[in-house]
Amino acid sequence: MRNAWSWLTGVVGFVLSSNLFAIQLQPVIEGGIIQPVYVAQAPGESSRHYIIEQRGRIQILENDALLKTPFLNIQSKVVSGGELGLLSVAFHPNFATNRRFFVNYTTETPRLSTVVSEFQVGSTVEKEIIRINQPYRNHNGGQLQFGPDGFLYIGMGDGGDAGDPGNRAQNVNDLLGKMLRVDIDHGSPYAIPPTNPFAQSGGRAEIFAWGLRNPWRFSFDRSNGRLITGDVGQNRLEEIDIVELGKNYGWRLMEGKLCYNPSSGCNPQKLALPIHEYGRTEGASITGGYIYRGKLNPELQGHYIYGDYVTGNLWALKIDESAQPAGNALLLKTELPISSFGEELDGEVLLVSHDGSIFRLVPNSLVVGKKNDQIRKGIENKTVPVG
Ligand SMILES: [Ca+2]
Known about the structure:
The chain contains two helices and 27 strands. By secondary structure, the protein is mainly beta.
């Protein structure tokens, strides 16, 4: 489907000057998918992309064509809309042989809840891993990822509404507002990794870290195993956190590096503060991405690619060897509703636009000839060097 001409004319966004980051968005798919919220590849399947539609389907894009039959259709179980829906998929590290995969969705049957379930290719049997009641319709987290330790990580938001009225994120006896970690290869339906901070006592054994507001999207750096999340803010600050075992990321005591509740005099001493934050002039809802480890954009090596759902800004935050931020750069003002990012098997990073498109980050230098006439969104030249 994609020939050389369509590849060239299909590139949206261009950069007028040669610059440290000359990045554009190359369409992977435009149209045929409804409200995509995630894209993933499965181990060993480089020609396939699994596209998660919020309403409750997973479509397969194979060699640039959508397959007629969805990979999964659980629309009858899923309540969708706003922050609800089928929110992500994670393939078992041994998927190529065991065919096991996991999904995270919200349901209203019998009551509003997050469900993480396991399926196996070729079977319609659903094995429920965990079900967590949701007090409100927003802040459901939704990301699943397997860590380098082989455990399944589950991002849980504070359950809503605004300001975490039940103070759930700070309550270690509640699974909301947490990063959870479970071992789905042992136990039934799972075992607790023995190094989880409350594996023995003191709180819910599934907790890996807490004090999160809504870790909508998180990922692992494939180079060093670091867990990095965007945490969606309340009224003032969007933040990026490096999430480590047993740490408290502050919410609702703090929003970013500011006191939230109490509004002054909060004590940050025992809290882990974000490595980066931004305010309302830049965006209003962070979408966490991936540390870039691909080949197409060598200048992005080691940068955390992330964006904002509301403004469409796309950034790269350099993170150094000691996990410290080393410069943030605005790559593009896309004006796209950036619902997610995805990482391909070869490390390239994809951007998911909620309005029905998926793009790959590619360098400007790959484009030859005249500037393309299919720029849809008025993407500006706003790349700036790291500084
Ligand atoms: Ca925080």
